[in-house]
Each structure stands twice: as C-alpha cells, then as structure tokens.
Hints:
The structure is a single chain. This protein is of the alpha/beta class. The chain has a domain at 14-155: Nucleotidyltransferase, domain 5 (2-Layer Sandwich), CATH 3.30.420.10. Helix content is 41%, strand content 15%. The chain is built from seven helices and five strands; from the N terminus they run E-E-H-E-H-H-E-E-H-H-H-H. It has a five-stranded mixed sheet. Helix 1 (53-66) packs across helix 4 (133-156) and helix 2 crosses helix 3 (85-98).
Amino acid sequence: MPLRKSYTKDGTIEAGCDEAGRGCLAGPVYAAAVILPPGFRNKWINDSKKLTEKDRYELRPEIEEKAVAFAVGFATHHEVDQINILKASFLSMHRAVDQLTVRPGLLLIDGNRFAPYPGIAHHCVVGGDAKFMSIAAASILAKTYRDDFMKEMDKQFPQYGWARNMGYGTREHRDAIHVHGFSPIHRLTFNAGQDQYALNFQEDAG
C-alpha cells in the first residue's frame, strides 16, 4: 500500500515527525520534522526500519533537496537520564520543529503520545512511519543523523561496537558494558542492563 501524502484535505501545511534511538542504551535520541511539497512522490521512501542502511543514506539527500523544510533535533543522554526517555523523545521533536523555516499548521507524530507543541495542532499516528510519506521521511533523517553521531562516537569508544549496533542493546554491546563499564555517553538511569550488570559486578567482586 502506498504511503499517504497528507492527513488533511484542506491544504494545511503538515510536518511529519519521528524519532530514532529511543530504545538505545547509549547516546542521544534524535528526531526530525519534514514538510514535503504537495504531490511529492518517491516510491522508495518508507519506514526507515524497513530500509537498508544504504537505502536510507541514498534517500536522505533526496528528502533534504525536495522538502519544503526539514530540521533535525536531539536530546542528550544526560537529558534522557534527567527527564526520562519519553519526555526526551518529545523534547527532541520540539527542537526539530523549532528549527523549521516554514511553520506547519499540523504535526503528524509517529506514535500514540506527544507533548503538545505551542500553537501547532498535532495528530498521533501509531505506525505512522509506514502510513504517511512525511513521517517516513522524518524517520529516515532521524535515523541517519543519529547513526552518523554513533559512528563518530565509535571512533572514541570502539570497544562497544557502536558502528555496528548504533547503541542498541545487542549481545556485543552488553558484553562490552560488562567488561569495560559504562562510557560517558551511556544512559545510566535508562540502561536496561544496568541493574543486572551491577549485580554481576558485585558477584565478580565477591
């Protein structure tokens, strides 16, 4: 089924919004907001999770060139720890919308919850990145920009394999945490393995 180009039928300017990195153990959560022109078509744009890395990076310049406006924002791992991952995801989306050079009349949000953005209506769409073109485009930008960041961090902390796992809780990543401890960009309050690894450390020390 082709992705829908708009939610409204009255010509309202819509910005699709999506995040990347919400389920990671390390690094920031990124979000993008994308306003596509009326009638925009690209049969390859889809939910970023359904695309290969090569496809995502090939589509990114197409989206950025053709979009009426786009922006990327993020919330740091410190902010994730301070305000929790859900609020940090909303904050990253707000920061992306803050940077749009065209003000939308409606935000299309991937998911079922959102913190209202002042002065702009929003509509939440579960699985929206597989239903609306603008949300899918936002998912591609958010994912590739976050991957760029994690690849750079991998150069500083190669022991965690971030160039391969992008901060997600793979076995490789969790084993590295067990051996090397947490890096400066791990989400300490959010880290799903923290309690278990703390227990393991205590057992090892005993």
